[in-house]
TrEMBL record:
Protein name: ATP-sensitive inward rectifier potassium channel 8
Domain Inward rectifier potassium channel C-terminal intervals: 182-352
Membrane disposition: Multi-pass membrane protein
Lineage, opening ranks: Eukaryota, Metazoa, Chordata, Craniata, Vertebrata
A UniProt-annotated Pfam family: IRK
GO BP annotation list: nervous system development; potassium ion import across plasma membrane; regulation of monoatomic ion transmembrane transport
Keyword entries, A-Z: Ion channel, Ion transport, Membrane, Phosphoprotein, Potassium, Potassium transport, Transmembrane, Transmembrane helix, Transport, Voltage-gated channel
Source organism (scientific name): Stegastes partitus
Length: 419
């Protein structure tokens, strides 16, 4: 038995119509990946399987400075106590070899006076290295060995003091401490500036002491694959800013907006608003400069992933003039407002400039409509208030009592009633 043929042709059926309909591009959800640079500027990178650990000991000073404070303090205390104990043992051996520890010895010249035990030798070692000199214990000129140990302890003590105190000073004066007062906006924005799509961030300095020769560098980090099939997990692409084109230096007196024009050389040139949200790129911002008070070079870093880039937003102004003084309101440092921005990529915007004109016209029309609605609402409110006031007057007039006036006449009294 043959199957009954459908009355509707196959090309007009649901499968045929679905196959001929234009399909929109499908974007996969962005897989959460680790950030290369954290928001506080720390590098999210772990070094593993380092075989040549001895290279860190060849640069002991840098290794000590890079250690955490608790390890540095432990090493600081251990080094001094160990040197005191080591030379205490040396002084005790000198006294023992010279016979100063013999309790039966009453007369004779001692190498070190009043050193009769290891405890007294330890106290004398601290007095020599720290140059306290309480005066109860001292060496004599009759013992050359004691003079040699004294010279060695002074030299070793100076070296230890120079290294340890220098390490503590460098840790307290590190450049990243100054970077704590260099702030970045929480989000980056993409909007139209001077008829071009621009990527913008805001930076600021909380201290009054300036950063001399401040420079800002932008890099886009993404995973790329070369035409030969090589996978580069961290491909760093330099991004030019407006300041870098002119003088490559910033006068960071007040918060500034760093602008990157998305042109043909930009890695964001082919990305639209939807494609940006689905991409896995990361924009790294590096601010470098010299601290005015100390002369030390400092660096502050942050990064922006695709979720932290707001398309169609602009930073609000935060610098105002109040009584002849420019005032900065840091409570609005990261605030943004929505502006008319095409959702297409910069490439499409260059190929079709009419898109920008249409977007601006729609924005102007919507702005005018909103103004009209506001004006009409104000008129309605004023009319309602006027109608309410007139109604209340009517109610007041209707509630008036009748007033009677009595006027005398010749034949008697007549009554006139007035309402």
């Amino acid at each position: 038995m043959l199957a009954r043929k459908s009355i509707i042709p196959e090309e007009f059926g649901l499968p045929g119509l679905a196959s001929r309909m234009p399909r929109k591009p499908v974007f996969r959800d962005r897989v959460n990946k680790a950030r290369f640079i954290a928001k506080n500027g720390s590098c999210n990178l772990a070094h593993k399987n380092i075989r040549e650990q001895g290279r860190f000991l060849q640069d002991v000073f840098t290794t000590l400075v890079d250690l955490k404070w608790r390890f540095t303090l432990v090493i600081f205390t251990t080094t001094f106590v160990s040197s005191w104990l080591l030379f205490a043992m040396s002084w005790w051996l000198v006294a023992f070899a010279h016979g100063d520890l013999d309790p039966d010895r009453q007369n004779g010249t001692h190498c070190v006076t009043d050193v009769k035990s290891f405890t007294s030798a330890f106290l004398f070692s601290i007095e020599v290295q720290v140059t306290i000199g309480f005066g109860g214990r001292m060496i004599t000129e009759q013992c050359p060995t004691a003079i040699t140990v004294l010279i060695l302890q002074n030299i070793v003590g100076l070296i230890i003091n120079a290294v340890m105190l220098g390490c503590i000073f460098m840790k307290t004066a590190q450049s990243n401490r100054r970077a704590e007062t260099l702030i970045f906006s929480r989000h980056a924005v993409i909007a139209v500036r001077n008829n071009r799509l621009c990527f913008m961030i805001r930076i600021g300095d909380l201290r009054k002491s300036m950063i001399i020769g401040a420079t800002v560098r932008l890099q886009v980090v993404r995973k790329t694959t070369t035409p030969e099939g090589e996978v580069i997990p961290i491909h760093q692409i330099d991004v030019q800013t407006e300041s870098a084109v002119a003088s490559n230096s910033l006068f960071l007196l007040a918060p500034l907006i760093i602008c990157h024009v998305i042109d043909k050389t930009s890695p964001l040139y082919d990305l639209s608003a939807m494609e940006l949200q689905c991409s896995d790129l990361e924009v790294i911002v590096i601010l470098e400069g010299v601290v005015e008070t100390t002369g030390i070079t400092t660096q502050a870093r942050t990064s922006y992933v695709s979720e932290e880039i707001q398309w169609g937003h602009r930073f609000v102004p935060i610098v105002t003039e109040e009584e002849g003084v420019y005032s900065v309101d840091y409570s609005k440092f990261g605030n943004t407002v929505k502006v008319a921005t095409p959702r297409c990529s910069a490439r499409e915007l260059d190929e079709k400039p009419s898109i920008l004109i249409q977007t601006l016209q729609k924005s102007e029309l919507s702005h005018q409509n909103s103004l009209r609605k506001r004006n009409s609402m104000r008129r309605n409110n004023s009319m309602r208030k006027g109608a309410g006031s007139s109604g209340s007057l009517r109610r007041n007039n209707s509630g008036l009592a009748k007033v009677q006036f009595f006027t005398p006449t010749e034949g008697g009294q007549s009554l006139n009633a007035v309402t």
